[in-house]
Amino acid sequence: MLMEKYLQHQQELHHVFIDFKKALDRIWHEALWSTMRKYNINSNLMSVIENFYNKATSAVFCNNNIGDWFRSTVGVRQGCLLSPTLFNIFLERIMTDALEDHCGTVSIGGRPIINLRLADDINGLAGNECERASLVEQLDKASSNFGMEINAEKTKIMTNSKESSKKEIKVNGQILESVTKLKYLGSIISDEG
């Protein structure tokens, strides 16, 4: 729908569909606790969550043998109901840091919109190629600062602009694939609306 509106008004719209490598497995606990404090999350709740993670130990079971027990300082628990919320808190910090100085030119109802997110499905929005390249660069830098890595193989770019130079964007030395159609949150998004 957004692409259709921008096509109707003959305005450029550039998408960056971001994918992080092993997103839930790479969350640093200390950075997560720091982020929760920064966002003034209730200290009693934080204490419960920190204890839940800091006191947990794991071991590898292989060939009927249990290896040494160890404590993990990274990643959130797979299948835990709390994990998506913890991930969203962590991702909010990354996005806030990445987009702190980024002035977006895409708007919905007069309100600037730089990205659309649902859990780890991120759609970065830009009004031109330079803005899109800057968005990717800033997000890559901020995510690296927090131990996250953009998956260049699964991250895609799209534009409705026919005059666009199709400028290459690289992440970790790999060119991001430009697509004309993509399934995002169960819907097909096309460069033609």
Question: What does it look like?
Answer:
There is one protein chain. The chain is of the alpha+beta class and 193 residues long. The protein has a domain at 2-23 and 82-190: Alpha-Beta Plaits (2-Layer Sandwich). It is 33% helix and 21% strand. The chain contains five helices and 13 strands. The strands form five sheets. It has a five-stranded mixed beta sheet. Strands 2-3 form a two-stranded antiparallel ribbon. A two-stranded antiparallel sheet has the order 4-5. Strand 2 (61-62) and strand 3 (65-66) form a beta hairpin. The longest helix is centred in the middle third of the chain and has 17 residues, at 83-99. It holds the Pfam family RVT_1. GO terms for molecular function: endonuclease activity.
Q: Topology, pairings included?
A:
Blueprint lengths: L1 H7 L5 E5 L10 H10 L4 H12 L6 E2 L2 E2 L16 H17 L7 E2 L2 E2 L2 E4 L2 E6 L2 H17 L10 E4 L10 E2 L2 E2 L1 E2 L2 E4 L2 E4 L3
Parallel strand pairs: 8-11
Antiparallel strand pairs: 1-7, 1-8, 2-3, 4-5, 6-7, 9-10, 12-13
Helix pairs in contact: 2-3, 2-4, 4-5
Pick out its properties.
193 residues, alpha+beta, Alpha-Beta Plaits, 5-stranded mixed beta sheet, endonuclease activity
What's the tally of helices? 5
Secondary-structure-derived class: alpha+beta
| CATH class placement of the domain at 2-23 and 82-190 | Alpha Beta
Uncertain segments are none
Distance, first to last CA: 7 Å
What profile does the largest beta sheet have? 5 strands, mixed
Strand content: 15-25%
State the assembly state of the protein chains: single chain
Mean pLDDT across all amino acids = 84
Order of helices and strands: HEHHEEHEEEEHEEEEEE
Level of helix content?
A: 25-40%
Radius of gyration: 19 Å
Which shape, going by the Cα principal axes? Answer: elongated
CATH topology of the domain at 2-23 and 82-190: Alpha-Beta Plaits
CATH superfamily of the domain at 2-23 and 82-190: Reverse transcriptase/Diguanylate cyclase domain
The number of E-state strands comes to 13
